[in-house]
């Protein structure tokens, strides 16, 4: 089941440019190395943004946490990067209280069992 309202999913550019794809960010740099291995770059963050939205629309999601801000959901699926390399990715989204569309929180490689 896709994330409800996935066709209107919001992915903030700063979240990608300055965190997920930033080799200089204290936490994000580890994720940046993973996404760089798939061919995603900080300069072309829009490609990852579109791919994450597509994953939200096609992925299988489940609720993980309800907070005072809204419902967090976790999805996973296969992401094919610009390099042609593929990897299993976990995404986290939040549907804010009163909203009917998700906002991107984070993404990371799926751990292998």
The share of residues in extended strands comes to 25-35%
Mean pLDDT: 91
Radius of gyration: 13 Å
Contiguous uncertain segments of 5+ residues? none
SSE run: HHHEEEE
Oligomer: single chain
Helix percent band? 25-40%
Q: How far apart are the first and last residues' alpha carbons, in Å?
A: 23 Å
How would you describe the shape? globular
Largest sheet: 4 strands, antiparallel
Count of β-strands:
4
| Side-by-side strand order of the widest sheet | 1-2-3-4
Structural class: alpha+beta
- Count of helical segments? 3
Describe this structure in words.
The chain is globular. Strands 1-2-3-4 form a four-stranded antiparallel sheet, with helices on one face. The protein is an alpha+beta fold. The chain contains three helices and four strands; from the N terminus they run αααββββ. A hairpin with a 3-residue loop joins strand 1 (60-66) and strand 2.
């Amino acid at each position: 089941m896709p994330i409800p309202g996935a066709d209107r999913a919001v992915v903030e550019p700063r979240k990608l440019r300055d965190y997920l794809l930033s080799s200089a960010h204290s936490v994000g740099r580890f994720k940046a190395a993973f996404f760089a291995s798939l061919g995603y770059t900080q300069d072309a963050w829009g490609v990852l943004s579109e791919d994450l939205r597509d994953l939200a629309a096609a992925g299988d999601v489940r609720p993980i946490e309800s907070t005072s801000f809204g419902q967090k959901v976790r999805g996973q699926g296969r992401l094919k990067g610009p390099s042609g390399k593929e990897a299993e990715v976990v995404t986290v989204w939040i549907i804010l209280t009163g909203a009917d569309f998700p906002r991107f929180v984070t993404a990371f490689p799926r751990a292998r069992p």
